[in-house]
Amino acid sequence: MLSYLIKNITVINEGISSVKDVLISNGRIEKIASQINTRQAIEEINGEGKHLLPGAIDDQVHFREPGLTHKATIYSESRAAVAGGVTSFMEMPNTLPPVFTQDLLEDKYRIAEASSLANYSFYMGTSNDNAEEALATNKKKKDVCGIKIFMGSSTGGLLVDNYLALDRIFRDSEVLIATHCEDEKIIKANLGNLKAARQMERQAHAAEDPEQPLLFPQDHPLIRDENACFESSLAAIQFAKKYNSRLHILHISTEKELQLFSNLLPLEQKRITAEVCVHHLHFTSDDYATLGNKIKCNPAIKAPHHREALWQALLDNRLDVIATDHAPHAWAEKDTIYEKAHAGLPLVQHSLLMMLHYAKMGRITVEKVAEKMSHAVAACFQVEDRGYIREGYYADLVIADLNARTTVSKENILYKCGWSPLEETVAGSEVPGLPARKAAADRRQPGREAFSAPAAITHTFVNGRLVYGNGRWDESVKGMRLRFRR
Question: Which fold has domain 55-386+404-453?
Fold first, then answer.
């Protein structure tokens, strides 16, 4: 394997920034020093003026394979991930068929082994009646990231709402349990109440077009509201505390939920941890007016005060890791009325750039970005030999140029679905899912500009191989199966 020597680069690692040389050999970081001279056959990279970060580890993605490959594949989305500086991912079980057996779980590993450019792990799925199979994912399975429970329904319909099934899994799981927390009863009640109110409004204004939809994208955070999230997260935590389970709650989206989490213990000692996603740190409910169903996701993007609370909790360590919940859909599945539009948005190519954007704005430090997207994920899941820039660790590394600029556009989006909520919304275009009168009003307003980050990902190393460098690809070797210290 070719060795690399990165010279004079600002290394971002474990809260410290320092200019170093880094030698990569045999897939790992061989040496970090102020100056390295070697007679090895190496490729030298000038890192002057650039930053070296540990590759991001995304603990929540949906790459859609098998069964939903019109939306995405493990190959296409892992390629997008690598271009964005994400070198490892943990993928969800709501594929087709859902991952309810150990055999189906291994099928996904076989697909990744043949096609993924990034390192990978997959969650075991749960249903109301597969506890025995799910719990076969135990401490002996040192290469499976954990068990996933949908305590609120989302894409794929894997809702687990049977109390006895939940109790059994929390009681007996030997590995991390990751939960999607939204209370289904509250969601259904909110939906029914809002529809009934709109029907009454329509009857009171008989002249309105009866073909117009009753609900719109702006209604999403009213239906999947703060209480739905809080009550479900509270229930998960009660189960976890009852049995001292290792619980990781995904995509926290509300201020109210933050009271459930603590920053009094070091991450390694926490039994209950929490994730925040980049879209909940970036968008608010104000953005439905221009982006419509593009930002429809579960749990919903909510009012601005929730975003501000999430930022504060991230910085004070009540929220432990940053992820994407990358969830691509074909454009036809988004470009429809609200109730039919699929929930989820593609983000894995741009998550690190989004956080570097906020670092340049002064909202978070680059060191904190590395902590929350790499170090903390490795610590939270006990990932073996990854997530840090340390001698002996796998060389999963990203070079970022913070003096460059990346603007999201159709031309540089690598997702198979071909679109991003960050690309330009042109003034005069239809906004998917909005009623005609609202879309007409929006056509008279300026369009939303494309997201432009004051940074660029120039090189991504996976297991010591330069998979992506200045727009060139080496796809000859695939990523590795993650291992976990248990």
Answer: TIM Barrel (3.20.20)
